[in-house]
């Protein structure tokens, strides 16, 4: 929609600038906020940085990872070959391997729950998206 395009243009403009971006993307349920955030994540990953999306529940994190993978399907093959959505939640089986690969920069698009907050090192973190309200 025009609203999504305008929001994405503003976000990408901020991301291209020298100052850190702090932004609230607000809209009705189903208005496309998550897609805008995911497109910003793709831009960050395309620039060589890592981007992470924090979801409040494992169910929502899994849904977001699937949606991000679907967005990747629309990319040209060369771009798609370098990117995939990596899911990290409390129930991730090979968590130590995933955390090691995040630190090494092998994963650029990260989706998960607050488990991502406990990753001790990111290779090049460029964007953090917090989806929905989180309670700790």
From TrEMBL:
Pfam families in alphabetical order: DEAD
Domain of life: Eukaryota
Gene Ontology molecular function: ATP binding; DNA binding; DNA helicase activity; hydrolase activity
Family matches, as InterPro entries: DEAD/DEAH_box_helicase_dom, Helicase_ATP-bd, P-loop_NTPase, RecG/Mfd
GO biological process terms held by the UniProt record: DNA repair
Helicase ATP-binding domain sequence ranges: 14-136
Keyword terms, alphabetized: ATP-binding, DNA damage, DNA repair, DNA-binding, Helicase, Hydrolase, Nucleotide-binding
Protein name per Swiss-Prot or TrEMBL: Helicase ATP-binding domain-containing protein
Species whose genome carries this gene: Chlamydomonas euryale
């Amino acid at each position: 929609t025009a609203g999504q395009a305008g929001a994405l243009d503003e976000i990408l403009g901020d991301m291209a600038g020298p100052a850190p971006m702090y932004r609230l993307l607000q809209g009705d349920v189903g208005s496309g906020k998550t897609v805008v955030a995911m497109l910003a994540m793709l831009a960050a990953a395309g620039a060589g940085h890592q981007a992470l999306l924090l979801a409040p529940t494992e169910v929502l994190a899994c849904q977001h990872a699937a949606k991000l993978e679907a967005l990747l399907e629309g990319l040209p093959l060369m771009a798609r070959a370098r990117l995939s959505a990596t899911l990290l939640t409390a129930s991730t089986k090979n968590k130590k391997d995933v955390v090691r690969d995040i630190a090494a920069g092998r994963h650029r698009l990260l989706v998960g729950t607050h488990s991502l907050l406990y990753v001790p090192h990111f290779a090049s973190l460029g964007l953090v998206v917090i989806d929905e309200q989180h309670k700790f």
